[in-house]
Amino acid sequence: MNAFSNTIVAADRARPAMAGGDPDIVISADGLVKTFNGEVIALDRATFDIRRGSFVSLVGPSGCGKSTLLRLVAGLIAKTGGELSVLGHGVSGPSSDVAMMFQRPTLLDWRTAVENVLLPTEVKRSATNADRRRAIDLLNLVGLKDFAFSFPRQLSGGMQQRVALARLLQTGANILLLDEPFGALDEFTRERLNLELMRIVEDVDATVLFVTHNIAEAIFLADQVMVMTPRPGRLARIVDVPFERPRGVELMQTPEFNGLVGEVRSILGGH
């Protein structure tokens, strides 16, 4: 994996179309299985549908297959069994419709923020002036208007993650996969970036699958929370989040929110 692998982008590969189905379902799995070395079951018969424009959190203990599921959707690894489709097509490799962001920003130290944001474009072709303007606009969107020409060493950890988020958006992908992108940050910075992420996702009208170990974060961000069991990873339950948007941090102090946190925690504790 190269130095800017925080964002996964690749050219489309041929994918056979899945027959029928609801056009509003953008990710669909039926009995999805992934094993490693023929014996370690990382994901066991997961079945779910994710609707266009929704924000879905995936929560569960370490090693339960959350990151494996994201990599399957991204086409970075192949399924062992079951069915998986994205935008109505079976997944057989990476697609430009899907982009993925990992926990670490992995910015190139010798490139400015805007140059780092441009990397996904430059992987595919030469960047144009329009591409550079878009990259600067995206840095503005994530709150880095005054830092477009700063180097990573001049930015805080939270600011570096904002650059990585802008780089994710630069791909133009409709489906965004985020694998614990704020897990290494302090609680205050993480809270601010959660608010930024919700605002940005609404602005770009993307579909998001977001992995976290933090139950409160999972609920605060999502329309639905997919709760995973310990390995072999199974989908224990999909919990609907009833809170209206926009949401503020005060929501997390309400009895309703904490009641839902308790419900998800009890599901996790029951497995």
UniProtKB/TrEMBL annotation:
UniProt entry keywords in alphabetical sequence: ATP-binding, Nucleotide-binding, Transport
UniProt cross-references to SUPFAM superfamilies, sorted A to Z: P-loop containing nucleoside triphosphate hydrolases
Record GO terms (molecular function): ATP binding; ATP hydrolysis activity
UniProt-listed InterPro entries: AAA+_ATPase, ABC_transporter-like_ATP-bd, ABC_transporter-like_CS, ABC_transporter_ATP-bind, P-loop_NTPase
PROSITE patterns assigned: ABC_TRANSPORTER_1, ABC_TRANSPORTER_2
Gene3D superfamilies: P-loop containing nucleotide triphosphate hydrolases
CDD domains: ABC_NrtD_SsuB_transporters
Pfam family, one: ABC_tran
Domain (ABC transporter) ranges: 27-255
SMART domains, per database record: AAA
Family to which the UniProt record says this protein belongs: Belongs to the ABC transporter superfamily.
Listed name of the protein: ABC transporter ATP-binding protein
